[in-house]
Amino acid sequence: MSTKKPPTPGQTPNPAIGLVQESAQQIWQAGLGAFAKAQEEGSKVFQGLVKEGLDLQRQTKAAAEQKLAEVSAKAAQPWDKLETIFEERVNKALTHLGVPSLLDFEALKAELAALKQQVAALEGGAKTAKRARAVKKTPIA
Asked: Which of 17, 80, 99, 129 has its CA 20 to 30 A from that of 35?
């Protein structure tokens, strides 16, 4: 039988096991210290991340608004061209159908005004001639 005594509490039978236990204890304590530090510094880090996120959000929003303005400006140009093309084609179709244009109406209006003046002048001359005949017919006493 063996005459070895069991190790007493607090003593390790092998010095390598003692080193491993001591290292494990230090690792555990370092983990607890890191956890405590993370809790302490975590709120500061979190607030910093929130601030960075807000800054990034503002920059992204500004860039998106700028791009939207550029796209809107570029989109307006083709609409103007499209409107011009549409107007030209409608005018061409109306002319082909014989519908008078605005210029035609303006010319007709000017001719009508000139004719009104001529009629008024002729009417004025006719009234003067009637008066002259009326004056000749009345006997002088």
From this structure: 17
Alpha-carbon span 104 to 109, nearest angstrom: 9
For the chain, the farthest-separated pair of C-alpha atoms sits apart, in whole angstroms, at: 188
- Tokens 């009637």 correspond to 130
11 in the Ramachandran plot: left (φ > 0), alpha (ψ -120 to 50) or beta? beta
The dihedral region occupied by 6, where left means phi > 0, alpha psi between -120 and 50, and beta the remainder, is beta
| Helix, strand, coil fractions of the chain, as percent rounded to 5 | 85, 0, 15
| Averaged pLDDT, 11-40 | 82
- Would you state the pLDDT for residue 11? 56
> Confidence class of residue 62 from pLDDT cuts 50, 70 and 90?
very high
CA distance 42 to 63: 31
CB 90 within 8 A of CB 102: no
- Please state, in angstroms and rounded to a whole number, the distance separating the CA atoms of residues 53 and 59: 10
| pLDDT confidence bin for 80, thresholds 50/70/90 | confident
What's the whole-model pTM score? 0.33
Higher-scoring residue by pLDDT: 107, 139: 107
